[in-house]
Design a protein that fits this description.
Condenses 4-methyl-5-(beta-hydroxyethyl)thiazole monophosphate (THZ-P) and 2-methyl-4-amino-5-hydroxymethyl pyrimidine pyrophosphate (HMP-PP) to form thiamine monophosphate (TMP). Its cofactor is Mg(2+). InterPro entries: Aldolase_TIM (IPR013785), HMP/HMP-P_kinase_dom (IPR004399), PM/HMP-P_kinase-1 (IPR013749), Ribokinase-like (IPR029056), ThiamineP_synth_sf (IPR036206), ThiamineP_synth_TenI (IPR022998), TMP_synthase (IPR034291). Its EC number is 2.5.1.3. It holds the Pfam family Phos_pyr_kin. This protein is an alpha/beta fold and 486 residues long. The protein folds into two domains: 213 residues, Aldolase class I (TIM Barrel, Alpha-Beta Barrel), CATH 3.20.20.70; 243 residues, Ribokinase (UDP-N-acetylmuramoyl-L-alanine:D-glutamate ligase, 3-Layer(aba) Sandwich). 38% of the residues lie in helices and 19% in strands. The protein contains 17 helices and 17 strands. A nine-stranded mixed sheet has the order 11-10-9-12-13-14-15-16-17, with helices on both faces. Strands 1-2-3-4-5-6-7-8 form an eight-stranded parallel beta barrel, surrounded by six helices. Strand 1, helix 2 and strand 2 form a beta-alpha-beta unit. Helix 2 crosses helix 9, helix 10 packs across helix 16 and helix 12 packs parallel to helix 13. Bound molecules: adenosine-5'-triphosphate, 4-amino-5-hydroxymethyl-2-methylpyrimidine (HMH) and magnesium ion (MG).
Length: 486
Protein backbone atom coordinates (compact mmCIF):
# COMPACT_ATOMS: atom_id res chain seq x y z
CA UNK A 1 0.00 0.00 0.00
CA UNK A 2 1.09 3.55 -0.60
CA UNK A 3 0.52 6.24 2.00
CA UNK A 4 0.66 9.98 1.37
CA UNK A 5 2.74 12.25 3.60
CA UNK A 6 -0.43 13.45 5.27
CA UNK A 7 -1.60 9.88 5.90
CA UNK A 8 1.74 9.02 7.47
CA UNK A 9 1.45 12.05 9.78
CA UNK A 10 -2.06 11.02 10.91
CA UNK A 11 -0.94 7.42 11.33
CA UNK A 12 1.53 8.44 14.05
CA UNK A 13 -1.38 9.06 16.46
CA UNK A 14 -1.24 5.67 18.16
CA UNK A 15 1.77 3.73 16.96
CA UNK A 16 1.77 0.16 18.28
CA UNK A 17 4.98 -1.91 18.50
CA UNK A 18 4.74 -5.65 19.05
CA UNK A 19 6.11 -7.67 21.94
CA UNK A 20 5.35 -11.39 21.92
CA UNK A 21 6.81 -11.94 25.36
CA UNK A 22 3.51 -10.93 26.95
CA UNK A 23 1.39 -13.40 24.99
CA UNK A 24 -0.80 -15.60 27.14
CA UNK A 25 -1.83 -19.22 26.62
CA UNK A 26 -3.74 -19.63 23.34
CA UNK A 27 -2.91 -16.17 22.03
CA UNK A 28 -0.90 -15.42 18.91
CA UNK A 29 0.76 -12.20 17.87
CA UNK A 30 -1.72 -11.96 14.99
CA UNK A 31 -4.77 -12.40 17.21
CA UNK A 32 -3.61 -9.69 19.64
CA UNK A 33 -2.67 -7.35 16.81
CA UNK A 34 -6.06 -7.82 15.21
CA UNK A 35 -7.66 -6.78 18.48
CA UNK A 36 -5.34 -3.78 18.67
CA UNK A 37 -6.08 -2.71 15.09
CA UNK A 38 -9.80 -3.23 15.57
CA UNK A 39 -9.65 -0.85 18.52
CA UNK A 40 -8.05 1.87 16.48
CA UNK A 41 -4.24 1.61 16.49
CA UNK A 42 -3.11 3.77 13.59
CA UNK A 43 0.30 2.21 12.85
CA UNK A 44 2.00 -1.13 13.53
CA UNK A 45 5.66 -2.05 13.80
CA UNK A 46 6.88 -5.60 14.32
CA UNK A 47 9.79 -5.61 16.77
CA UNK A 48 10.71 -9.06 18.00
CA UNK A 49 14.32 -8.99 19.12
CA UNK A 50 14.56 -12.68 20.05
CA UNK A 51 13.00 -14.27 16.95
CA UNK A 52 15.33 -15.80 14.40
CA UNK A 53 14.92 -14.41 10.86
CA UNK A 54 12.70 -17.09 9.33
CA UNK A 55 10.22 -17.09 12.24
CA UNK A 56 10.30 -13.29 12.30
CA UNK A 57 9.55 -13.16 8.59
CA UNK A 58 6.63 -15.54 9.00
CA UNK A 59 5.06 -13.44 11.75
CA UNK A 60 5.74 -10.27 9.75
CA UNK A 61 3.97 -11.65 6.70
CA UNK A 62 0.82 -12.37 8.71
CA UNK A 63 0.85 -8.93 10.30
CA UNK A 64 1.34 -7.30 6.91
CA UNK A 65 -1.90 -8.86 5.61
CA UNK A 66 -3.70 -7.82 8.77
CA UNK A 67 -2.57 -4.21 8.48
CA UNK A 68 -3.60 -4.09 4.82
CA UNK A 69 -7.09 -5.16 5.91
CA UNK A 70 -7.25 -2.26 8.38
CA UNK A 71 -5.43 0.13 6.00
CA UNK A 72 -2.82 0.83 8.64
CA UNK A 73 0.86 1.23 7.72
CA UNK A 74 3.04 -1.73 8.69
CA UNK A 75 6.79 -1.48 9.16
CA UNK A 76 9.51 -3.92 10.16
CA UNK A 77 11.99 -3.03 12.88
CA UNK A 78 15.71 -3.13 12.02
CA UNK A 79 15.74 -5.51 9.05
CA UNK A 80 15.66 -3.85 5.63
CA UNK A 81 16.07 -7.33 4.09
CA UNK A 82 12.92 -8.72 5.68
CA UNK A 83 10.95 -5.53 5.03
CA UNK A 84 11.79 -5.82 1.34
CA UNK A 85 11.35 -9.59 1.21
CA UNK A 86 7.76 -9.39 2.45
CA UNK A 87 7.04 -6.06 0.74
CA UNK A 88 6.13 -4.35 4.02
CA UNK A 89 5.08 -0.70 3.91
CA UNK A 90 8.47 0.25 5.30
CA UNK A 91 11.19 -0.15 7.87
CA UNK A 92 12.14 1.48 11.16
CA UNK A 93 15.80 1.73 12.12
CA UNK A 94 17.88 3.13 14.94
CA UNK A 95 20.89 5.44 14.79
CA UNK A 96 23.23 2.44 14.82
CA UNK A 97 21.68 1.06 11.63
CA UNK A 98 22.08 4.13 9.45
CA UNK A 99 25.77 4.94 9.71
CA UNK A 100 27.35 4.99 6.26
CA UNK A 101 24.30 3.58 4.46
CA UNK A 102 21.90 5.15 2.04
CA UNK A 103 18.78 3.51 3.37
CA UNK A 104 16.47 5.57 1.20
CA UNK A 105 18.17 4.26 -1.93
CA UNK A 106 18.11 0.74 -0.51
CA UNK A 107 14.39 0.62 0.20
CA UNK A 108 13.16 2.75 -2.71
CA UNK A 109 11.20 5.97 -2.72
CA UNK A 110 7.75 4.50 -2.00
CA UNK A 111 8.54 2.73 1.26
CA UNK A 112 8.12 4.37 4.65
CA UNK A 113 11.42 5.04 6.39
CA UNK A 114 11.31 5.64 10.15
CA UNK A 115 14.42 6.58 12.10
CA UNK A 116 14.92 6.85 15.87
CA UNK A 117 16.47 10.04 17.16
CA UNK A 118 17.18 11.49 20.60
CA UNK A 119 18.67 14.89 19.80
CA UNK A 120 17.95 17.81 17.47
CA UNK A 121 21.07 16.95 15.46
CA UNK A 122 20.02 13.32 15.03
CA UNK A 123 16.50 14.39 14.04
CA UNK A 124 17.74 16.85 11.43
CA UNK A 125 20.16 14.26 10.05
CA UNK A 126 17.37 11.67 9.88
CA UNK A 127 15.19 14.06 7.89
CA UNK A 128 18.10 14.79 5.54
CA UNK A 129 18.62 11.04 5.11
CA UNK A 130 15.08 10.78 3.72
CA UNK A 131 13.14 9.65 6.80
CA UNK A 132 9.34 9.88 6.58
CA UNK A 133 9.01 10.20 10.35
CA UNK A 134 11.15 10.05 13.44
CA UNK A 135 10.63 8.22 16.69
CA UNK A 136 11.94 10.35 19.54
CA UNK A 137 12.71 9.06 22.99
CA UNK A 138 12.92 7.77 25.49
CA UNK A 139 10.46 10.24 26.94
CA UNK A 140 9.87 8.28 30.14
CA UNK A 141 11.70 5.46 31.88
CA UNK A 142 11.23 2.28 29.89
CA UNK A 143 11.67 -1.37 30.62
CA UNK A 144 11.98 -2.27 26.93
CA UNK A 145 15.20 -0.46 26.23
CA UNK A 146 18.01 -0.34 28.76
CA UNK A 147 20.23 2.75 29.10
CA UNK A 148 17.82 5.02 27.23
CA UNK A 149 18.09 8.69 28.21
CA UNK A 150 14.96 10.54 29.28
CA UNK A 151 13.95 13.59 27.26
CA UNK A 152 12.15 16.62 28.68
CA UNK A 153 9.02 18.02 27.05
CA UNK A 154 11.06 21.12 26.12
CA UNK A 155 13.62 18.97 24.30
CA UNK A 156 10.83 17.13 22.52
CA UNK A 157 9.31 20.43 21.42
CA UNK A 158 12.69 21.62 20.14
CA UNK A 159 13.04 18.46 18.07
CA UNK A 160 9.50 18.81 16.67
CA UNK A 161 10.25 22.40 15.70
CA UNK A 162 13.53 21.46 14.01
CA UNK A 163 11.99 19.08 11.45
CA UNK A 164 9.02 19.16 9.07
CA UNK A 165 8.42 15.38 9.06
CA UNK A 166 6.13 13.85 11.70
CA UNK A 167 7.45 12.98 15.14
CA UNK A 168 6.21 10.15 17.34
CA UNK A 169 7.21 10.08 21.02
CA UNK A 170 8.35 6.75 22.47
CA UNK A 171 9.58 5.25 25.70
CA UNK A 172 7.60 4.22 28.76
CA UNK A 173 4.40 5.98 27.64
CA UNK A 174 1.19 4.73 29.25
CA UNK A 175 -2.29 6.03 30.02
CA UNK A 176 -1.23 7.76 33.23
CA UNK A 177 1.79 9.72 31.98
CA UNK A 178 0.70 10.44 28.37
CA UNK A 179 -0.82 13.83 29.30
CA UNK A 180 2.62 15.01 30.47
CA UNK A 181 3.59 15.26 26.78
CA UNK A 182 1.05 18.00 26.14
CA UNK A 183 2.56 21.05 24.51
CA UNK A 184 5.33 19.00 22.95
CA UNK A 185 3.88 19.21 19.39
CA UNK A 186 4.36 15.48 18.72
CA UNK A 187 2.12 13.83 16.12
CA UNK A 188 1.46 10.79 18.25
CA UNK A 189 2.72 8.26 20.74
CA UNK A 190 4.39 4.88 20.24
CA UNK A 191 3.75 2.20 22.83
CA UNK A 192 4.77 -1.38 23.45
CA UNK A 193 4.03 -2.60 26.94
CA UNK A 194 1.13 -0.19 27.58
CA UNK A 195 -0.75 -2.30 25.03
CA UNK A 196 0.93 -5.71 24.87
CA UNK A 197 1.40 -6.26 28.62
CA UNK A 198 -2.18 -5.20 29.31
CA UNK A 199 -4.78 -7.78 30.38
CA UNK A 200 -7.04 -6.30 27.74
CA UNK A 201 -4.98 -4.98 24.80
CA UNK A 202 -8.10 -3.87 22.88
CA UNK A 203 -9.35 -1.70 25.71
CA UNK A 204 -5.85 -0.39 26.40
CA UNK A 205 -5.68 0.62 22.73
CA UNK A 206 -8.95 2.53 22.72
CA UNK A 207 -8.09 4.27 26.02
CA UNK A 208 -4.68 5.32 24.69
CA UNK A 209 -6.22 6.41 21.41
CA UNK A 210 -8.61 8.86 23.04
CA UNK A 211 -5.78 10.24 25.21
CA UNK A 212 -3.57 10.56 22.13
CA UNK A 213 -6.35 12.43 20.33
CA UNK A 214 -6.57 14.96 23.16
CA UNK A 215 -2.78 15.35 23.05
CA UNK A 216 -2.57 15.84 19.30
CA UNK A 217 -5.57 18.12 18.88
CA UNK A 218 -5.18 20.34 15.86
CA UNK A 219 -3.71 23.66 16.81
CA UNK A 220 -5.75 26.56 15.37
CA UNK A 221 -3.08 27.14 12.71
CA UNK A 222 -3.31 23.55 11.52
CA UNK A 223 -7.12 23.35 11.57
CA UNK A 224 -8.33 22.48 8.09
CA UNK A 225 -11.44 24.16 6.72
CA UNK A 226 -14.31 23.05 4.50
CA UNK A 227 -17.23 24.82 2.89
CA UNK A 228 -20.67 23.45 2.11
CA UNK A 229 -22.58 25.20 -0.67
CA UNK A 230 -26.05 23.71 -0.36
CA UNK A 231 -29.66 24.12 0.68
CA UNK A 232 -30.89 24.38 4.25
CA UNK A 233 -32.96 21.46 5.55
CA UNK A 234 -34.89 22.83 8.51
CA UNK A 235 -35.44 19.29 9.81
CA UNK A 236 -31.68 18.99 10.28
CA UNK A 237 -31.00 15.65 8.59
CA UNK A 238 -29.82 16.65 5.12
CA UNK A 239 -28.45 19.70 3.30
CA UNK A 240 -26.41 22.36 5.07
CA UNK A 241 -27.29 21.03 8.52
CA UNK A 242 -26.05 17.50 7.72
CA UNK A 243 -22.95 18.93 6.06
CA UNK A 244 -21.93 21.12 9.02
CA UNK A 245 -22.41 18.27 11.48
CA UNK A 246 -20.49 15.86 9.25
CA UNK A 247 -17.57 18.19 8.63
CA UNK A 248 -17.34 19.04 12.35
CA UNK A 249 -17.38 15.37 13.34
CA UNK A 250 -14.70 14.69 10.72
CA UNK A 251 -12.40 17.21 12.37
CA UNK A 252 -12.46 20.24 10.10
CA UNK A 253 -13.80 23.77 10.58
CA UNK A 254 -17.10 23.94 8.68
CA UNK A 255 -18.61 26.90 6.78
CA UNK A 256 -21.74 27.29 4.65
CA UNK A 257 -23.06 29.24 1.67
CA UNK A 258 -26.81 28.69 1.39
CA UNK A 259 -28.40 28.23 -2.04
CA UNK A 260 -32.00 27.72 -0.89
CA UNK A 261 -34.14 27.48 2.20
CA UNK A 262 -36.33 24.41 2.26
CA UNK A 263 -39.28 23.79 4.52
CA UNK A 264 -39.08 20.00 4.73
CA UNK A 265 -39.20 17.16 7.20
CA UNK A 266 -38.74 13.41 7.08
CA UNK A 267 -41.91 12.97 5.02
CA UNK A 268 -41.79 15.72 2.37
CA UNK A 269 -40.46 19.01 1.06
CA UNK A 270 -43.22 21.58 1.60
CA UNK A 271 -41.70 24.81 0.23
CA UNK A 272 -38.48 26.09 -1.28
CA UNK A 273 -37.21 29.68 -1.25
CA UNK A 274 -34.28 30.08 -3.62
CA UNK A 275 -31.37 32.34 -2.67
CA UNK A 276 -30.77 35.16 -5.17
CA UNK A 277 -27.64 34.71 -7.32
CA UNK A 278 -26.32 38.02 -5.99
CA UNK A 279 -26.68 36.89 -2.38
CA UNK A 280 -24.96 33.57 -3.11
CA UNK A 281 -22.10 35.56 -4.65
CA UNK A 282 -21.84 37.75 -1.52
CA UNK A 283 -21.67 34.71 0.75
CA UNK A 284 -18.92 33.18 -1.39
CA UNK A 285 -16.95 36.45 -1.44
CA UNK A 286 -17.13 36.76 2.35
CA UNK A 287 -15.88 33.21 2.76
CA UNK A 288 -13.16 33.02 0.12
CA UNK A 289 -11.61 36.39 0.94
CA UNK A 290 -11.25 35.55 4.63
CA UNK A 291 -11.19 31.87 5.63
CA UNK A 292 -10.22 30.11 2.41
CA UNK A 293 -11.68 26.58 2.44
CA UNK A 294 -9.35 23.60 1.99
CA UNK A 295 -12.23 21.72 0.35
CA UNK A 296 -15.69 22.53 -1.00
CA UNK A 297 -18.79 20.35 -1.05
CA UNK A 298 -21.63 21.37 -3.37
CA UNK A 299 -25.18 20.13 -2.80
CA UNK A 300 -28.61 21.47 -3.79
CA UNK A 301 -28.55 24.05 -6.59
CA UNK A 302 -32.15 24.81 -7.53
CA UNK A 303 -31.62 26.75 -10.77
CA UNK A 304 -29.24 27.57 -13.62
CA UNK A 305 -28.55 31.20 -12.54
CA UNK A 306 -27.19 30.02 -9.21
CA UNK A 307 -25.04 27.41 -10.95
CA UNK A 308 -23.57 30.03 -13.28
CA UNK A 309 -22.68 32.42 -10.45
CA UNK A 310 -21.21 29.60 -8.41
CA UNK A 311 -19.07 28.29 -11.26
CA UNK A 312 -17.76 31.79 -11.99
CA UNK A 313 -16.79 32.39 -8.33
CA UNK A 314 -15.16 28.96 -7.94
CA UNK A 315 -13.06 29.61 -11.03
CA UNK A 316 -12.24 33.14 -9.84
CA UNK A 317 -10.99 31.91 -6.44
CA UNK A 318 -9.45 28.73 -7.87
CA UNK A 319 -11.23 26.66 -5.22
CA UNK A 320 -9.54 23.35 -4.37
CA UNK A 321 -10.95 19.87 -3.75
CA UNK A 322 -14.48 20.39 -5.06
CA UNK A 323 -16.88 17.51 -4.35
CA UNK A 324 -20.12 17.88 -6.29
CA UNK A 325 -23.19 15.99 -5.10
CA UNK A 326 -25.60 16.48 -8.03
CA UNK A 327 -28.71 16.63 -5.87
CA UNK A 328 -31.75 16.36 -8.09
CA UNK A 329 -34.40 14.52 -6.06
CA UNK A 330 -34.75 14.25 -2.25
CA UNK A 331 -35.00 10.89 -0.43
CA UNK A 332 -38.70 11.70 0.00
CA UNK A 333 -39.13 12.03 -3.79
CA UNK A 334 -39.38 15.83 -4.12
CA UNK A 335 -37.63 17.66 -6.97
CA UNK A 336 -34.76 19.85 -5.72
CA UNK A 337 -33.38 21.09 -9.06
CA UNK A 338 -35.16 22.49 -12.13
CA UNK A 339 -34.86 19.98 -14.96
CA UNK A 340 -33.59 22.74 -17.24
CA UNK A 341 -30.64 23.36 -14.88
CA UNK A 342 -29.08 19.95 -15.58
CA UNK A 343 -27.49 21.19 -18.81
CA UNK A 344 -25.86 24.12 -17.01
CA UNK A 345 -24.68 21.81 -14.23
CA UNK A 346 -22.98 19.56 -16.79
CA UNK A 347 -21.42 22.38 -18.74
CA UNK A 348 -20.34 24.70 -15.92
CA UNK A 349 -19.81 22.69 -12.75
CA UNK A 350 -18.85 19.12 -13.58
CA UNK A 351 -15.58 20.18 -15.23
CA UNK A 352 -14.60 22.09 -12.04
CA UNK A 353 -15.26 19.14 -9.74
CA UNK A 354 -12.55 16.83 -8.44
CA UNK A 355 -15.30 14.32 -7.70
CA UNK A 356 -18.98 14.03 -8.58
CA UNK A 357 -21.16 11.70 -6.46
CA UNK A 358 -24.42 10.78 -8.23
CA UNK A 359 -26.78 8.09 -6.99
CA UNK A 360 -28.05 5.73 -9.69
CA UNK A 361 -30.96 7.89 -10.98
CA UNK A 362 -28.63 10.92 -11.11
CA UNK A 363 -25.94 8.88 -12.86
CA UNK A 364 -28.55 7.87 -15.45
CA UNK A 365 -29.25 11.53 -16.16
CA UNK A 366 -25.56 12.52 -16.27
CA UNK A 367 -24.59 9.58 -18.51
CA UNK A 368 -27.79 9.70 -20.62
CA UNK A 369 -28.51 5.99 -20.30
CA UNK A 370 -30.35 3.41 -18.18
CA UNK A 371 -28.33 1.66 -15.48
CA UNK A 372 -29.35 -1.74 -14.15
CA UNK A 373 -26.20 -3.89 -13.75
CA UNK A 374 -22.77 -3.40 -12.13
CA UNK A 375 -21.25 -3.39 -15.65
CA UNK A 376 -23.58 -0.56 -16.61
CA UNK A 377 -22.56 1.33 -13.45
CA UNK A 378 -18.92 0.98 -14.54
CA UNK A 379 -19.65 2.11 -18.09
CA UNK A 380 -21.68 5.10 -16.88
CA UNK A 381 -18.93 6.17 -14.46
CA UNK A 382 -16.32 5.94 -17.18
CA UNK A 383 -18.51 7.96 -19.55
CA UNK A 384 -19.12 10.73 -16.98
CA UNK A 385 -15.46 10.81 -15.91
CA UNK A 386 -14.12 10.97 -19.44
CA UNK A 387 -16.70 13.48 -20.65
CA UNK A 388 -16.31 15.94 -17.78
CA UNK A 389 -12.71 15.23 -16.71
CA UNK A 390 -13.54 14.51 -13.10
CA UNK A 391 -13.58 11.51 -10.81
CA UNK A 392 -16.98 9.83 -10.30
CA UNK A 393 -18.46 7.94 -7.36
CA UNK A 394 -21.71 6.20 -8.29
CA UNK A 395 -23.61 5.29 -5.14
CA UNK A 396 -25.65 2.17 -4.85
CA UNK A 397 -27.52 3.18 -1.72
CA UNK A 398 -31.01 3.46 -0.41
CA UNK A 399 -32.56 3.63 -3.88
CA UNK A 400 -31.24 0.15 -4.76
CA UNK A 401 -30.75 -1.37 -1.29
CA UNK A 402 -27.03 -2.05 -1.54
CA UNK A 403 -24.13 -0.15 -0.04
CA UNK A 404 -21.67 -0.73 -2.86
CA UNK A 405 -20.25 2.33 -4.54
CA UNK A 406 -17.99 2.56 -7.58
CA UNK A 407 -15.16 5.08 -7.81
CA UNK A 408 -13.80 5.91 -11.27
CA UNK A 409 -10.72 8.14 -11.11
CA UNK A 410 -8.08 8.71 -13.79
CA UNK A 411 -9.16 5.62 -15.71
CA UNK A 412 -9.05 3.36 -12.61
CA UNK A 413 -12.13 1.64 -11.16
CA UNK A 414 -12.41 0.83 -7.49
CA UNK A 415 -15.46 -0.76 -5.86
CA UNK A 416 -16.20 0.07 -2.24
CA UNK A 417 -18.26 -2.74 -0.79
CA UNK A 418 -20.26 -1.54 2.20
CA UNK A 419 -22.36 -3.62 4.57
CA UNK A 420 -25.96 -2.65 3.97
CA UNK A 421 -27.25 -1.49 7.35
CA UNK A 422 -30.90 -2.41 7.93
CA UNK A 423 -31.91 1.12 8.80
CA UNK A 424 -34.83 2.67 6.88
CA UNK A 425 -33.81 6.11 8.16
CA UNK A 426 -31.54 7.28 5.34
CA UNK A 427 -32.53 10.94 5.05
CA UNK A 428 -29.34 12.80 4.11
CA UNK A 429 -27.01 9.85 3.39
CA UNK A 430 -25.85 11.43 0.13
CA UNK A 431 -25.21 14.84 1.73
CA UNK A 432 -23.35 13.21 4.59
CA UNK A 433 -21.17 11.05 2.35
CA UNK A 434 -20.10 13.94 0.09
CA UNK A 435 -19.33 16.24 3.06
CA UNK A 436 -17.31 13.55 4.78
CA UNK A 437 -15.31 13.02 1.57
CA UNK A 438 -14.69 16.80 1.32
CA UNK A 439 -13.60 16.95 4.97
CA UNK A 440 -11.11 14.14 4.45
CA UNK A 441 -9.76 15.74 1.27
CA UNK A 442 -9.34 18.96 3.28
CA UNK A 443 -7.26 17.00 5.78
CA UNK A 444 -4.98 15.83 3.00
CA UNK A 445 -6.15 12.26 2.46
CA UNK A 446 -6.09 10.85 -1.07
CA UNK A 447 -9.39 10.56 -2.94
CA UNK A 448 -9.65 6.81 -2.46
CA UNK A 449 -8.83 6.99 1.25
CA UNK A 450 -11.27 9.90 1.68
CA UNK A 451 -14.07 7.80 0.16
CA UNK A 452 -13.13 4.86 2.38
CA UNK A 453 -13.09 7.00 5.53
CA UNK A 454 -16.33 8.76 4.56
CA UNK A 455 -18.12 5.43 4.10
CA UNK A 456 -16.86 4.31 7.49
CA UNK A 457 -18.24 7.48 9.10
CA UNK A 458 -21.57 7.06 7.31
CA UNK A 459 -21.86 3.42 8.44
CA UNK A 460 -21.29 4.56 12.03
CA UNK A 461 -23.97 7.23 11.74
CA UNK A 462 -26.47 4.76 10.21
CA UNK A 463 -25.62 1.98 12.67
CA UNK A 464 -26.55 4.22 15.60
CA UNK A 465 -30.17 3.45 14.59
CA UNK A 466 -31.62 6.85 15.40
CA UNK A 467 -35.35 6.80 14.71
CA UNK A 468 -36.92 10.25 14.52
CA UNK A 469 -39.88 11.57 12.54
CA UNK A 470 -42.68 9.83 10.69
CA UNK A 471 -40.82 9.26 7.40
CA UNK A 472 -37.27 8.31 6.42
CA UNK A 473 -35.54 9.92 9.38
CA UNK A 474 -32.09 11.42 9.92
CA UNK A 475 -28.93 9.65 11.10
CA UNK A 476 -26.99 10.24 14.30
CA UNK A 477 -24.12 12.35 13.02
CA UNK A 478 -22.59 12.51 16.50
CA UNK A 479 -22.67 8.73 17.07
CA UNK A 480 -19.11 8.78 18.36
CA UNK A 481 -19.71 11.48 21.02
CA UNK A 482 -21.06 10.79 24.49
CA UNK A 483 -22.47 14.29 24.97
CA UNK A 484 -20.68 14.54 28.32
CA UNK A 485 -17.95 17.07 29.02
CA UNK A 486 -15.73 17.03 32.00
N1 LIG B 1 -28.68 1.13 4.41
C1 LIG B 1 -27.44 1.50 4.11
N2 LIG B 1 -26.37 0.88 4.70
C2 LIG B 1 -25.11 1.25 4.42
N3 LIG B 1 -24.79 2.22 3.57
C3 LIG B 1 -25.79 2.87 2.95
C4 LIG B 1 -27.15 2.56 3.18
N4 LIG B 1 -27.93 3.39 2.43
C5 LIG B 1 -27.06 4.19 1.77
N5 LIG B 1 -25.78 3.86 2.05
C6 LIG B 1 -24.59 4.53 1.55
O1 LIG B 1 -24.83 5.91 1.66
C7 LIG B 1 -24.14 6.61 0.66
C8 LIG B 1 -25.11 7.54 -0.05
O2 LIG B 1 -25.79 6.79 -1.02
P1 LIG B 1 -27.30 7.04 -1.43
O3 LIG B 1 -27.55 6.27 -2.66
O4 LIG B 1 -28.16 6.80 -0.25
O5 LIG B 1 -27.22 8.60 -1.76
P2 LIG B 1 -28.31 9.62 -2.21
O6 LIG B 1 -29.41 8.92 -2.93
O7 LIG B 1 -27.64 10.70 -2.90
O8 LIG B 1 -28.84 10.14 -0.79
P3 LIG B 1 -29.80 11.42 -0.49
O9 LIG B 1 -31.19 10.90 -0.56
O10 LIG B 1 -29.41 11.81 0.87
O11 LIG B 1 -29.53 12.42 -1.51
C9 LIG B 1 -23.48 5.56 -0.22
O12 LIG B 1 -22.14 5.38 0.17
C10 LIG B 1 -24.29 4.32 0.08
O13 LIG B 1 -23.55 3.16 -0.18
C1 LIG C 1 -31.60 20.87 1.34
C2 LIG C 1 -31.47 19.45 0.90
N1 LIG C 1 -30.41 19.09 0.21
C3 LIG C 1 -30.27 17.81 -0.20
C4 LIG C 1 -31.22 16.87 0.09
C5 LIG C 1 -31.02 15.44 -0.41
O1 LIG C 1 -31.34 14.49 0.47
C6 LIG C 1 -32.35 17.28 0.83
N2 LIG C 1 -33.33 16.44 1.17
N3 LIG C 1 -32.44 18.58 1.23
MG1 LIG D 1 -28.40 12.63 -3.01
Amino acid sequence: MNFSKEEIRHSMLLYAITDRTWLKEGETLTSICEDVLKHGATFLQIREKDLEPSAFQKEALELKALCAKYQVPFVVNDSVEIALAIDADGVHVGQGDIQGKNLRALIGKDKILGISAATVAEAVAAQAAGADYIGVGAVFGTSTKKNARNLSVEKLREICAAVTIPVVAIGGIHALNLRKLSGSQVDGVAVISAIFSSDNPGKATSDLLSLARQLVQPTPRLMRTALSIAGSDCSGGAGIQADLKTMTMNGVYAMSAITALTAQNTTKVEKIVETSPDFLKSQLDMIFTDIFPDAVKIGMLPNARLIEVLAERLRFYQAKHIVLDPVMVATSGSILMETSAVLTLKKELLPLAELVTPNIPEAEILSERKITTPEEIEAAAEFIGKTYHCAVLIKGGHSVNTANDLLWADGQMEWFYGRCIPNPNTHGTGCTLSSAIAANLAKGYSLSTSVQRAKKYLSGALSAMLDLGAGSGPMNHAFCLTGEFS
